[in-house]
């Protein structure tokens, strides 16, 4: 098959899969699904996630860096937030920790999984992975602050029993998270945009003109934007359709309910992981870090305000505070991330260390 035919096939695939996923959503909405139907809907869901990220990348390529990473991170976070709210609506009391579990899983997967895998791939391929320490350091500091304010402080506040915020505290956390995320976006895209661009081994900014010369047309970008919205709707609806099966499988396996949050985070972040690894292979590690840390930041900065607003009509408690084990993992992630980012370059060792932390998180989620 020629390269032209392959590109044409892939374009058709990214057009028809979201539409097929929407059809699956319509046919499965409000029904008890058979095992075969669950498999079909799950396949449509996976295809819609991949298609969504593909179209987000097309739009991202059109607008360039660091706007491209921002588009992709926000798109993935919209999927995550929609899934959390959708599952919490029908989950009852057992979904009280779903938002916390999913957001924390997203932070661990992005800051350890995507960062570690990207650094490992880039370092093995190019001997040393290089990136912009100023931008990456600012992003990590923002992620650490958001995670501490939203996921650690509820464990120690006393206005409400348990690891929960009071209404006033939750409102403050939501406003602070949204404001801090907005401030970071302004710095990333306007004030200090050069801090978030890829650099060479000599510390000079990479020339982006070659990539920009091959950027999609405006019509192609608009088409991808529309298909991205279609794919996002399909992802949310199909995930709701298969969620009872996922939860039943977790319970029948005797695993903690927190594993559901890990599954959701893995689902929405897997395609973004592939995008980050592709960027790392092209020696654009900064793009990979923008994707990873930007997604972690958006996951907290956008999810907490939406969940806070949703508590107006959602019944039951909202548990946000982390336990001791997860706080240790979060502290280890922040310290290790800082030591990795400060030099502005990394070897395969740093990538392996981050992946080891992620492995510990997944293992302890299944076997606490």
Automatic annotation (TrEMBL):
Q: Which residues form the Sodium/calcium exchanger membrane region domain?
A: 36-189, 224-365
- Where does the UniProt annotation place the signal sequence? none
Note whether Secreted occurs among the keywords: no
Q: Which GO terms describe its cellular component?
A: plasma membrane
Q: How does it sit in the membrane?
A: Multi-pass membrane protein
Bilayer-spanning residue ranges = 12-30, 36-55, 67-88, 103-124, 136-156, 168-187, 219-237, 257-277, 289-314, 320-342, 349-366
Domain of life of the native organism: Bacteria
Locate the coiled-coil region(s) and give their ranges: none
The answer to whether keyword Cytoplasm applies is no
Q: Which Pfam families match?
A: Na_Ca_ex
What InterPro entries does the record point to? Answer: Alkaline_pH_Ca-Antiporter (IPR052946), NaCa_Exmemb (IPR004837)
* Compartment annotation: Membrane
Q: Which GO terms describe its molecular function?
A: potassium:proton antiporter activity; sodium:proton antiporter activity
Sorted keywords for this record are:
Membrane, Transmembrane, Transmembrane helix
The name this protein goes by in its record: Ionic transporter y4hA
Q: What is the lineage of its organism?
A: Bacteria, Bacillati, Actinomycetota, Actinomycetes, Kitasatosporales
